[in-house]
Amino acid sequence: MSIAAGVKEILGKSLQIDADGNLVNLQDWDEEIAGEIAKEEGIEVLTEDHWKVINFMRKVYSDTGDAPSIRKLTMQSGVDTKLLYALFPKGPAKKAARIAGLPKPKGCI
């Protein structure tokens, strides 16, 4: 889904987003923002397993400058493929990256 880059209002804050709908400025992200983005993605409550994936993605991004691929997520995050798809249906790496305040992982369509 490609949308126009621009500004999005979340919790009374005007945040820049890219053409994929991901935050442009990493420092705009916090756990409350994550919760609101999750709701937009159809995830009403972020569970401990959601946070395990989100925090793993943010750490990998901090260490490498790239959001992890689905393969890396399933092999290294502690969450298996089946659970990952249950937590973040229809594109877990892309959806989890958006909620984590990160750019879309390379290789995601």
Quick recap:
This protein has 5 helices and 2 strands.
3D structure, described in words:
By secondary structure, the protein is mainly alpha-helical. The chain has a single domain, classed as Arc Repressor Mutant, subunit A, CATH 1.10.10. 45% of the residues lie in helices and 9% in strands. The protein has 5 helices and 2 strands; from the N terminus they run ββααααα. It has a two-stranded antiparallel sheet. A hairpin with a 2-residue loop joins strand 1 and strand 2. The radius of gyration is 13 Å and the shape is globular.
Keywords:
109 residues, mainly alpha, Arc Repressor Mutant, subunit A, two-stranded antiparallel ribbon, globular
Topology at a glance:
Blueprint: E1 6-10, E2 13-17, H1 31-40, H2 48-64, H3 70-76, H4 81-87, H5 92-99
Antiparallel strand pairs: 1-2
- Unreliably modeled segments: none
* Second CATH tier, the architecture: Orthogonal Bundle
At the fold tier of CATH, the topology name is Arc Repressor Mutant, subunit A
**Biggest sheet statistics:** 2 strands, antiparallel
What's the Cα radius of gyration? 13 Å
Cα separation of the termini: 9 Å
Total beta strands: 2
Global shape = globular
SS-derived structural category? mainly alpha
